[in-house]
Specification:
globular
């Protein structure tokens, strides 16, 4: 298992000009590590512990957690959500805030994505600490300091809301997680191929901050999961599953170093967020985040291939600029995003990413750096090898495998970029008037993958 001391509780002076630091005190991944939970509680001198879980995660890991605490004579209260399919929204936040005892100084969450995000946000609001006991290696948010929540029907990411004081991933529990949750974690990591390319693309085109050291951490995480996917994940090998968990945590550490989610979230995540919102509006909650990210990764690889062909044209500057009709666009956002439409419109009002001035500025930078961008794209893995790797672990790679229709796919390609103020692949294609054509061509290609 990984030596976390080189990443935690220290300042790292980087060649990027910044100091990187991650203030997570304890990361423990391996066999029987839940037994060390009392040691971390006593080391940090917590007195009033509240366990937060849902009915599913309590069944998975509640018993060993309670046993470890009882054996160490550590008292605790608990709040268990009775929701079979818990949604991280205002209602869930309110239920935690009203149920946690006033004197609680440590929340111990048992779960993965939803429980972790809720505990993180509530810990931040209550100004106390939280630990997370992982029940599945299903997503990369364990070590991040962002909490993606559903607020006013909109996927809203709250940044800089703190990290867990401890992350505990017991491989005996993680390897028995439902396989689709394990492969969801792999899908989330595969998305780093795209977001790292988006991040470097933004650095080239807009001058956005970029750090090679952080990017390499992400690449190391992807490499480890690729190895585990090639051999070990499908067989539920404890070491392979542990490698997935460590890669997911390492991705979160990278986000902590950068101060935002940029190193771990790009165009693939934006499409995933759109699909998640549409599923929620339709009353469907079953497709895991990482699974949608994995599918978004395959879509984005096709789109990057399209972009590379576009950038190779001698008359790139002759491609038409988009005509931004604000009124028509606003109406389209209300149609596409429904209840979340006003928030999307408000973001554009604030940042003007689609304005003619900003589009022209970015177009000039892309044309100037066309060769450099093509070289960047050429370093991406091929569509074939990515799909082959996903097939080996039975991870969905085609949208229709999880209920995403061709219309939902095309709309995500064209409009998912509106969810965040992040320059990347989708904005690049928009700036050259190619996004709708790319959606038509790539949409058919992806849906017809074998």
């Amino acid at each position: 298992m990984m030596d976390w001391n080189k990443y935690l509780n220290k300042k790292i002076s980087c060649t990027c000009g910044r100091e990187h630091e991650c203030d997570i005190r304890h990361i423990d991944v391996g066999k029987n590590v839940i037994d060390r939970l009392p040691d971390y509680i006593k080391t940090d001198n917590y007195k009033h512990i509240c366990i937060v879980a849902d009915v599913n995660t309590e069944k998975i890991a509640g018993a060993p957690v309670y046993k470890a605490l009882n054996n160490a004579n550590i008292e605790y209260s608990k709040f268990i959500f009775d929701d079979v399919d818990l949604i991280p929204d205002e209602k869930a936040i309110g239920r935690i805030m009203t149920q946690i005892p006033d004197d609680c100084d440590l929340i111990v969450g048992i779960g993965s994505g939803t429980i972790n995000d809720l505990c993180r946000f509530c810990s931040h609001k209550l100004k106390n600490d939280y630990f997370i006991i992982a029940t599945a290696p299903s997503m990369d948010g364990y070590a991040s300091d962002v909490a993606p929540l559903i607020i006013n029907n909109l996927k809203t990411t709250y940044e800089k809301v703190g990290r867990p004081a401890a992350i505990i991933g017991d491989t005996d529990i993680l390897k028995d997680a439902p396989l689709h949750m394990i492969t969801s974690g792999a899908g989330d990591i595969f998305g780093k191929y795209i977001c790292l390319t988006d991040w470097q693309l933004a650095h080239i085109v807009t001058g956005e901050y970029y750090c090679n050291f952080i990017a390499q951490i992400m690449k190391d995480a992807v490499s480890e999961v690729a190895k585990a996917a090639d051999s070990g994940i499908a067989q539920r090998n404890g070491n392979a599953i542990g490698a997935v968990m460590e890669a997911l945590i390492l991705a979160g550490v990278g986000m902590s170093y950068s101060g935002n989610s940029r190193p771990a979230s790009g165009s693939e995540h934006h499409m995933s967020h759109y699909w998640e919102m549409k599923f929620l509006q339709q009353g469907k909650h079953g497709v895991l985040h990482g699974t949608k990210v994995g599918i978004g990764t395959v879509v984005a690889l096709h789109l990057y291939k399209y972009a590379a062909q576009m950038l190779s044209k001698d008359d790139l500057e002759m491609l038409p600029s988009p005509l931004f009709d604000k009124t028509a666009w606003n109406n389209k956002m209300l149609e596409i995003y429904g209840p979340a439409g006003p928030s999307v419109i408000a973001l554009e009002e604030k940042v003007n990413k689609n304005s003619d001035i900003n589009v022209q500025r970015r177009r000039k930078a892309v044309i100037k750096n066309s060769s450099k961008i093509q070289e960047l794209i050429s370093k991406l893995p091929t569509i074939e090898e990515t799909v082959h790797r996903m097939k080996k672990i039975d991870e969905p790679y085609r949208p229709d495998q999880v209920g995403i229709t061709i219309d939902m796919l095309k709309i995500a390609i064209v409009y998912a970029k509106e969810l965040r103020n992040r320059y990347g692949l989708l904005q690049l294609l928009y700036d050259f008037g190619q996004l709708e054509e790319a959606a038509d061509i790539v949409g058919e290609q992806v849906m017809n993958l074998k």
